[in-house]
Specification:
Blueprint (H helix, E strand, L loop, with lengths): L30 E5 L2 E7 L1 H4 L3 E8 L8 E2 L4 E8 L2 E6 L5 E6 L4 E4 L4 E6 L4 E8 L7 H6 L1 E3 L20 H4 L2 E2 L9
Antiparallel strand pairs: 1-2, 1-11, 2-3, 3-10, 4-12, 5-8, 5-10, 6-7, 6-9
């Protein structure tokens, strides 16, 4: 059994809002949000780590490419635990790479590198960690998407209105690149 806290983001959360407090969260019981076709579960965020890193999972079905984006101040880790995820990355000199990641595979995206991903198999899952001097971006998921108490994937993909993509870069260090072209595939 885990304790529930009221936070400024949610009426009930299993993540304490203040830093320096140990806690435990049972599988899947973090702060959940639906975005695109995915379920994102945050287990630790900026509030708990004094804005040094976050820890989350992304679960999804085989689907479309998540839009290309860049984080100016945040490094991001992709560690696949289930299924297969294709990671697309472009470094600061314009070199593009793509790699199919399967369980146990790891991908690192430094700050200022454009990237995107696509779930290649149903029931794929990525463990994500993001860290950087500018803070963390985990609240982006529920602000562009929708907070949920559900444990499963959304019944229909939750695609934000195009104008909302421009509202997130300054608050969450997520800058979408709508005209970006991947030359790899």
């Amino acid at each position: 059994m885990t304790i529930e806290y009221a936070t400024r983001y949610r009426p009930a959360s299993r993540i304490p809002a203040e830093p320096g407090k140990p806690y435990f969260i049972e599988k899947g019981e973090g702060d959940r949000a639906h975005l695109f076709g995915d379920l994102i579960t945050v287990y630790a965020g900026g509030e708990q780590t004094e804005n040094t890193f976050n820890f989350f999972t992304v679960e999804g079905p085989k689907g479309d490419l998540i839009p290309a984006h860049v984080h100016a101040d945040t490094h991001e880790v992709f560690y696949v635990t289930q299924g297969a995820v294709r990671l697309f990355v472009e470094d600061t000199e314009g070199l593009q790479q793509e790699k199919l990641l399967t369980p146990g595979d790891f991908g690192f995206v430094p700050k200022n590198c454009a990237h995107a991903y696509r779930m290649e198999r149903h029931h794929s899952q990525v463990v994500g960690v993001a860290a950087g001097p500018g803070g963390t971006f985990e609240r982006f998921f529920e602000n562009l998407g929708a907070p949920t108490q559900a444990h499963g994937l959304p019944h229909r993909p939750l695609i934000p209105e195009p104008h909302t993509f421009g509202t997130v870069p300054e608050r969450y260090d997520v800058n979408f690149l709508p005209d970006h072209q991947w030359r790899t595939r």
